Every structure is written in structure tokens, then in C-alpha cells.
Amino acid sequence: MKKEEEISLPCNHNSNYWNAILKDEGLCISLRSNNPLSDTVKSELIKYQDILNVRYGKGLLSKWPKLNIETAATSKKIEINVAGLEILQEFVDKLNFRIFQVKNKENTPEKSLADKLKEAKELLDIGALSQDEFDEIKQKYLKEF
Questions:
Q1: What's the CA gap between 111 and 99, in Å, rounded?
Q2: Where are the alpha helices (DSSP H) in 1-145?
Q3: Tens digits of residue pLDDT in 114-125
């Protein structure tokens, strides 16, 4: 997967969390210190493949939109208060897309060079590739080999 830009979700001032950031390797959540005089921030990285469920909505007792993340690795639910619903919706869409990419990549076996060459040859045989295009692809794969 190509390097993705980091996307940050600032959390509400009354949340236990400072922010949530989408990184290449997973979702990084920064926790606020319980001590109001401390500026110490702890971070937790949750790998995308460990995320079971992502939801968002309004809290029952709170006016703030909430991000809910359920994980397999930690068997816990993370609830984050966020200031804006539109920002939250966009963040959840991007988070779900990254989760989909990672889980899809895990389930798709990498093709061998022989398989790729065989596929290119089949495309040549049915006329979808010219001989020059096939030769170019073949040289590219042989260089990788």
C-alpha cells in the first residue's frame, strides 16, 4: 500500500482523548492525562486489521457526536467525543476505507512473477495486448525476478 497522508480527528475538550490520527500502520489515539496540570500525552496504536466495528452518532446523554471503535485485540470499546459531526463523518469514511484496504490486501494472495507472465501471455493470445506490449511487460517482470 502506498504511503497515505495522516488524517487527524481533534477530540472535544471534555473527552478523555486528545486526538485520533489515521496512520499507515493503524489508528493512533492520544489519551489526555488525568492530571490537569500535566501536558503528558500517551498514545495507543490500533492496527486496522484489529478493528471490528466503527460507528458514530450522537450520545444519549451528551450533545457531542461520538466515535465508537470496537477492537478484537484489546476487547474494548473506545468512545471519543468530537466537536463536529461533519468532520467525524468524513473521518469515519476514511477510517473504514483504510480498514477495507488492509483487510482486502490480507485476503488477496500476492501473484508470483510466473502467474503475472502467464496472465500477460493469455492477454497476448486473445489479442488484448500487442507483441510489443507483451515484450515490454515480460522484460519488466524478468528484471524484478
A1: 22
A2: 85-107, 113-125, 131-144
A3: 888 888 888 888
Whether the per-residue pLDDT at 60 is higher than 70: the answer is no
0.85 surpassed by pTM: no
Of the candidates 103, 102, 104, 80, the residue with the CA atom closest to the CA atom of residue 92: 80
Grid coordinates representing 142 are 524478468
Reading the block at residue 14, the C-alpha cell is 471534555
DSSP state letter for 85: H
Report d(CA 140, CA 143) in Å as an integer: 5
3-state helix, strand, coil in the chain (%, to 5): 35, 30, 35
The single residue listed with the C-alpha cell 472535544 is 12
Instruction: Please report where in the chains the cell 489515521 appears, as a residue.
Output: 22
3-class state of residue 117 by DSSP: helix
Distances (CA, A) of 34 to 12, 21, 42, 78: 15, 21, 11, 17
The three three-digit cell numbers of residue 104, written as one number: 482486502
